[in-house]
Amino acid sequence: MRLGANLPRIGGYNELVVLQAVRQDAGISRVAIAERTGLARQTVSGLVGRLLDAGLVEAAGTEIIGRGKPRTRLRIVPSARYALGVHLDPAVATAVLLDFQGEIVDRLADAELLDADPFASTRRVAAAASALVSRNGVPPDRVVGLGVATPGPVDLATGALITPPWLSGWNGFPVRRELAARFGGEVSFDKDTTAALVGEMWLRPGSYAAGTVLFVYLGTGIGAALGAGGEIVRGAGNAGEIGHMVVDPDGPPCPCGRRGCLGVATDPAGLVAEAVEAGVLRPRPGPATPRSIDLQFAELCEAAERGAAGAVASLERVGRRVAEAVRMLVGVLDAGHVVFGGPNWQRLERYCLPACEAALARTRKRWPEPTVVRGTTAGAGVGAVGAAAMVLDERFVPRASRLHADFDADRGRALTLLTLNDVLNRFGSSGTPATKGTTPCTTIRQD
Ligand SMILES: [Zn+2]
């Protein structure tokens, strides 16, 4: 029977389900994994054995519960695998080396890596990424790949940027192909907002397995990413381009012909120009560059921290504008989580967070499920961390979408109506029927 050929694939999938359970809960036992995932105990034992043999997990002592025999506690081996991530932000390019646990082993931020020549830039970026591996003594064969995140929109099919702001000369540049050629390995590619959400999901395994999560990215531009049921929602590839949502009808004019679009109303370049005009900031000599704007925007935020009235008013306005966008998006999506991140998040957190909470409280006060609003776990380098996490995610996160996609490819017809639950219950791992009525993706505990 045609489907039988897919049993090893389901076994591989279940191996990732077990790996995910160990990542989510360091010290978990085989019995607890079986309870959590709904897989049969025997199946879990076999899968754990494979993960131990592969060196991805290790024993970390034992626990004794009741009069049963001691249970071995399992944890991830952080040095088992590594991934490189590069964020090509016009203000500053960042590269990170991430271990299997998601910890940053090393990081490099360099404003000089990118210029108008994309070929020379990618050469420098690939060299910088490789240097992170060699200077930390990481065996190259443990580095599973390199991820690259760029400002959106992007062309996922060709791995190219589309009219990136501030990166003249990069329009249509096939950055994935060029980096793969220089780096000499596989390269994962996506826009930075999406990468940031992948990173957030990798660092908090299982936290967004149910419901909807909205990631709002504040950097050189503003963008969003969306996750539902633990999967990234990409649309045709560029979901989350929220820059033209009107959030302030009295705001600045937008090139699209309207006023107060989120993009222009929160654009650091516009805010800096406004502050210079109002005498809050001193003008800087020379033409504006992403770097100079970033430095001036930092000055504006510092002035606000010191209590300079004009600066505070400007950033509070930004907070309200971002909150208005979040209020509308949460209304559309019924998002249970809103996560903020990006290079400017730390600077704007004190203005955006209270404004968002207030805006959501106004409209969703008595809703049964309150929306949780928070900053990303990945910190300021979320773009690069997310880029590295994309590499790990592609290989080590059990995603129903991939299982279905593989089936689709094999069978040449859509199987999207067949739920993962059906698949696992019917075929299990290595032919062992799984416990009925559970789906590994959704039985993972929320933390
Ligand atoms: Zn607009």
How does this structure look, described?
The chain is of the alpha/beta class. It has three domains: 2-76 and 429-443, Arc Repressor Mutant, subunit A, CATH 1.10.10.10; 80-200 and 386-392, 2-Layer Sandwich (Nucleotidyltransferase, domain 5), CATH 3.30.420.40; 205-376, Nucleotidyltransferase, domain 5, CATH 3.30.420. It has helices at 7-24, 30-37, 41-53, 118-135, 175-183, 192-203, 262-265, 268-277, 290-305, 309-333, 345-364, 382-396, 400-411, 420-427, 440-443; strands at residues 57-63, 71-76, 82-88, 93-99, 104-110, 143-150, 154-155, 160-161, 187-191, 212-218, 222-228, 231-233, 337-341, 372-375. The chain has a five-stranded mixed sheet with strand order 5-4-3-6-9. Strand 1 and strand 2 (71-76) form a beta hairpin. It starts with 6 loop residues before the first helix and ends with a helix. It binds zinc ion. Zinc ion (ZN) is lined by residues 244, 254, 256, 258, 261.
Which descriptors would you attach to this protein?
447 residues, alpha/beta, Arc Repressor Mutant, subunit A, Nucleotidyltransferase, domain 5, 3 domains, 14 strands, 43% helix, binds zinc ion
The gist of it:
It contains 15 helices and 14 strands. It is α/β, with parallel strands linked by helices and 447 residues long.
Largest sheet: 5 strands, mixed
Q: Helix coverage percent of residues?
A: 40-55%
User: Looking across the biggest beta sheet, what order are the strands in?
Assistant: 5-4-3-6-9
Q: Count the DSSP helices.
A: 15
Helix/strand order, N-terminal first: HHHEEEEEHEEEHEHEEEHHHHEHEHHHH
Q: Based on helices, strands and strand pairing, what is the structural class?
A: alpha/beta
CATH homolog superfamily of the largest domain:
ATPase, nucleotide binding domain
Uncertain segments:
1-7, 412-447
* Average pLDDT rating: 87
The total strand number stands at 14
| Computed CA radius of gyration, to the nearest angstrom | 23 Å
* First-residue to last-residue Cα separation: 41 Å
CATH class of the largest domain: Alpha Beta
CATH topology of the largest domain: Nucleotidyltransferase, domain 5
Strand content: 15-25%
